[in-house]
Amino acid sequence: MFISCIKIDGFKNLSSVNIDVDKRINVICGDNAQGKTNLIEAIWLCSGLKSFRNSKDKDLINLKRQNFDIEISFENSFRKQKIEYKLAKQNIKEKNIKLNGVPLKNPSDLFGNLCCVVFTPEDLFISKGSPDNRRKFIDICVSQIKNSYRRVLNQYDEILTQRNFLLKNISIGKSSVDELDVWDEQMSRLGSYISVIRYAYTKKLNTFAGRLYNEISHGKEKLEIFYESSVFETLENRSDYNREMASEYLAKLKSTRQEDIKTGFTTIGVQRDDLISNINGLNCREFGSQGQCRSVALVFKIAQAYILFEETKEAPCILLDDVLSELDMKRQDFVLSRISDMQVFITCCKDIKLKSGIGKTFYIKGGRIINA
Ligand SMILES: Nc1ncnc2c1ncn2[C@@H]1O[C@H](COP(=O)(O)OP(=O)(O)OP(=O)(O)O)[C@@H](O)[C@H]1O
Ligand SMILES: [Mg+2]
Fold first, then answer.
1. Domain shared by 178 and 290, yes or no
2. How many angstroms separate the alpha carbon of residue 34 from the centre of ligand 2?
3. I want to staple 127 with a disulfide (CB 3.0 to 4.6 A). Which of 1, 284, 316, 349 is the partner?
4. Span 186-195, pLDDT tens digits
5. In this structure, are 93 and 182 located in the same domain?
6. Alpha helical stretches, state H, the chain
7. Which atom of ligand 1 is nearest to the CA of 40?
8. pLDDT of residue 354
């Protein structure tokens, strides 16, 4: 799958962008604060996910304008397609999104069409940073290939908020402990489902990322990735959600109730789980060197792209925002060579030289492409 044309107007500082892009490599070059990341963000939005910078919807629209328009034409192995994404300040709750002219209800209905993998400098810290980032990573990866997953996650989050609220009320005597039952039951079902899906994804990630890590370390180091559940002792051999899992989850929730009431929040559950990376048996978070952690981040992202490719049968589009300049030559070559059959957008401040002259370079200034 590849993008052929991008039109953006009124999205953050971008204005009158209208570019025919290269099937393989596109370099977006410009000084700081000219709109490079904004361009990447606009493409990402059309993949169906929220802004990777956590921008609020209203902040996506240019401060001086009333609306933004994004139009992306792309082709997969079957046909040419077009996504139109519009948002107006006046009607901020209502996104006007069309796929091939057909209106869609939610941005998530775009999943599975324009599949992208975005890689930013913050991602380089995935194995060192907080578990929250790793859960976010796995949840995005799964959402891209399983449309219904995002809905379940949202439901789980709502129940968690309600349960935590109730816990606080119980501790001040405003509610009774029995009221937890109804939330715990729902939480157990949703939580078990999320656990099993994340576990299955982790197994795939382990296979792909493990292989890539073996290559980047020239066979000297072995990377292993595990899903660490705060509820289940092991998820081994569990490929599907079932009732027994939910019962086990529920029993665990009940066993921690007293502690939960005391602390005012839910101490076990998928909101506490983690993705563990071990290099030669040592936890990367605690023992990994900076170089090892960077390599882990690279192979995570490339593996995400490979899994997406395998699941959707289409090569995803890779968005590299400012990461190449953060990597040494060896790692730059590694990334580019492993995604050589995918379309890539690379942002950078300095002109980078592309091997054998393939691809296009776009210069951006003040939100406009100046060499179009
Ligand atoms: N809603 C908005 N309206 C107008 N301008 C905005 C809006 N949101 C962000 N901007 C501006 O867009 C500019 C470009 O941002 P962007 O992050 O794309 O820069 P960049 O080219 O990636 O820079 P860097 O090299 O530093 O990463 C910023 O100066 C920012 O103030
Ligand atoms: Mg930037």
1. yes
2. 8
3. 284
4. 999 999 999 9
5. no
6. 36-45, 57-60, 131-145, 149-171, 180-216, 243-255, 257-263, 284-287, 290-312, 329-338
7. 18
8. 65
